[in-house]
Amino acid sequence: MGVTKEFSSKPAKFFVSSVYLDMGQNGEMNDTIDCPLCGQGKLKRTEILDRLGVKDFARVAQLSAEEAFRLLTQKHNDEQQSVWSRFETELAKRTAEIRERHKDELRSAQSHRDDLTRRVEDCLRELAQVRERNQVLEGEVSKASRRGKLEEISFEEEARTWAGIAVSSKLGKNGDYVLAYRDPSGAPLEPPILVDNKDKATISEGDIRKLIRDAKERRAPVGVIVAREESQLRQHDCDRRWSQEDGVWVLRTTRQWLPRDLEVLKPIFERMRTEGPDFLQRNSALAEEIRRTFVDLDEIDKELKKAAKAIESASGLNAKHKSRVQTLCDTATPTSHCKTAGA
User: Fold this and answer.
1) Does 230 reside within a domain?
2) Nearest to 291 by CA among 232, 236, 254
3) ∠ CA 309-313-314 to the nearest 5 degrees?
């Protein structure tokens, strides 16, 4: 009771103020205070404030401030977490977009590389095919060249056996050989005759134009294109075996016909030698008659071939029937009359 009376004799306002002001240097409120009576005891602040009927506003304020700080901290943490979540979501989204874009670029680059690879493979395959075709063509050209050279060599060997004909050496260009008739001393006579041998499927117009150019280069008024066989001449060649083209007289012939054709033209060549190369130009009727002569000779040659074939066929049939009759005679049974006569 003494403590109560002594305690209550103090002004309440001063005591409460002392209680509120009793805080540590660090700003934290002390839970205990010194006894105001003896100065030695320790009293709890909550007991004193409860007895005085006063609320611990400082404590409430402190707790409220702590709660406010806690709420602010939590809010800040939540906002920070939300920001980080949005950042991570946006980062994942952008990363996915970049990844897809790079995938598209990689797919496009891969597709482009595949296209380039296919094109390179196609080009290499076409190159290989072209190389094979070139090899085949080179082989054919080589065969044709060899065949042409053999044709020229065989023609030279054959022409040197013709009586009264001079044959030049193989020409390096502008034709194959130059032919001419010989005089009694063996010297070649005018006019020179340029010869170009061809062993191909069909004589072309380009071959005729080349012969004319070569004849002009060698100043030869007559050019002869010699096919291996008659089938290599076109119908136009057969109809106009002797004709003038661009100032040059052209003879279209074969290896078999050439000796005969030269004999037919020998009087014409003699007149050219005495009256000049333009002799036939001044005698167009004679030139036309020569053209028809060659056509007639070709027809006669065809008929002779037919006759020779018929004679050969008849000879074969005759031999066949003769052999058959001989066989029948050998296998026939002798009659009794023949036996009696023989006896």
Assistant:
1) yes
2) 236
3) 120
Check whether residue 177 and residue 46 sit in a common domain.
Answer: no
Tokens of 36: 């105001």
Indicate the burial class of 181 (C-beta count within 10 angstroms; 0-12, 13-18, 19 or more): middle
Beta bridge partners of 197: 226
Phi and psi angles of residue 209, each rounded to the nearest 5 degrees, phi first: -65, -40
Q: With contact defined as beta carbons under 8 Å apart, do 194 and 218 qualify?
A: yes
Read off the DSSP letter of residue 26.
T
In the sheet where 177-181 sits, what is the strand order?
165-167, 177-181, 193-198, 222-227, 248-254, 242-245
- CA 298/CA 80 separation, integer angstroms: 115
- Does residue 18 sit within a domain? yes
Q: Give the count of domains, the chain.
A: 2
Cα–Cα distance for residue pair 200/32, rounded to 1 Å: 134
Residues 199, 192: contact at Cβ < 8 Å? no
* 189 & 304 share domain: yes
What is the per-residue pLDDT for 35?
Answer: 67
Contact residues for 216 (Cβ-Cβ < 8 A; gap 6+)? 246, 247, 248
Residues 51, 169, single domain; the answer is no
Task: Identify the CA nearest to 258 among candidates 283, 219, 226.
Answer: 226
CATH no. for residue 312? Answer: 3.40.1340
Residues 223, 126: contact at Cβ < 8 Å?
no
Token readout for 194 is: 């340029």
**Closest to 10 in 3D by CA, of 46, 39, 40:** 39
Task: Note down the domain range covering 279.
Answer: 160-316
Question: CA dist 22 to 4, 40, 228, Å?
Answer: 21, 15, 141
Position 340 in a domain: no
3-state secondary structure at position 133: helix
pTM above 0.70, yes or no: no
Q: What is the mean pLDDT of each run of 10 residues along the chain (343 residues)?
A: 41 46 48 66 68 62 77 85 87 87 83 87 88 79 55 78 88 87 88 90 91 92 91 88 88 90 87 82 78 78 72 72 70 53 41
Residues β-bridged to residue 252:
225
Query: Within a domain: residue 6?
Result: yes
